[in-house]
Write a structure and sequence with these properties.
The structure holds 2 protein chains of 2 kinds.
Chain A: E1 3-5, E2 10-14, E3 19-21, E4 24-26, E5 33-38, E6 44-50, E7 56-58, E8 64-68, E9 73-78, E10 87-93, E11 100-101, E12 105-110
Parallel strand pairs in A: 2-12
Antiparallel strand pairs in A: 1-4, 3-9, 5-6, 5-10, 7-8, 8-9, 10-11, 10-12
Chain B: E1 5-7, E2 10-13, E3 19-24, E4 31-37, E5 44-50, E6 65-69, E7 75-79, E8 88-95, E9 101-102, E10 106-110
Classes of the chains: A mainly beta, B mainly beta.
């Protein structure tokens, strides 16, 4: 059965610093992978997705993620964090009825 | 184009009352999902509609929860005899392929 683990519940970074949010998954086949962001009081917005091909995918708002099959990981990165990036980030694997979401990582950005 | 919309955005109800939450998916999206997000938690799958097929109700936590989707479009999630543990944000998502597009959610508070 597929599952997603986000090891970090809460991360704090300084504005302008780089960011990496971890995501590990368990999936029986080639996974479909997603990162979503949820700002306070909002729904989830799709940041980026991986289905196949180039393992480094670019998303919106300057985010990117790299699929590493050998490590079963799909970590989210951003080279320079902005205060507006403070939000909850969810990794997801699968598709349709089989999609599974991680528990989320809350990002706090210090001035 | 218009995204997924949900109404109401906030609902406060007394314990024991029934509530109805509405979701308007993106036009043309055949799949519709309901999730529950409790404070500080990830997403808990509730129910899934796909086209004209029978819905997958495997995530509904009790028989007090039900949902319908009329005409393959608008969906209503009904919670009967609400309990305090029903307090959460209820998210709706629609999709036509692999990625899901989320509405802003309805925050339900049961007093």
């Amino acid at each position: 059965a597929q599952s997603v683990t986000q090891p970090d519940i809460h991360i704090t970074v300084s504005e302008g610093a780089s960011l990496e949010l971890r995501c590990n998954y368990s999936y029986g086949a080639t996974p479909y992978l997603f990162w979503y962001v949820q700002s306070p009081g909002q729904g989830l917005q799709l940041l980026l997705k991986y289905f196949s091909g180039d393992t480094l995918v670019q998303g919106i708002k300057g985010f990117e993620a790299e699929f590493k099959r050998s490590q079963s990981s799909f970590n989210l990165r951003k080279p320079s964090v902005h205060w507006s990036d403070a939000a909850e980030y969810f990794c997801a694997v699968g598709a349709g009825i089989d999609m599974r979401f991680g528990a989320g990582t809350r990002l706090t950005v210090k001035p | 184009g218009a995204g997924v919309s949900q109404s109401p955005s906030n609902k406060v109800t007394e314990k024991g009352k029934d509530v109805e939450l509405r979701c308007d998916p993106i036009s043309g999206h055949t799949a519709l999902y309901w999730y529950r997000q409790s404070l500080g938690q990830g997403l808990e799958f509730l129910i899934y509609f796909q086209g004209n097929s029978a819905p997958d109700k495997s995530g509904l936590p009790s028989d007090r929860f039900s949902a319908e989707r009329t005409g393959g479009s608008v969906s209503t999630l009904t919670i009967q005899r609400t309990q305090q543990e029903d307090s959460a944000v209820y998210l709706c998502a629609s999709s036509i392929q692999r990625e899901q597009y989320f509405g802003p959610g309805t925050r339900l508070t049961v007093t």
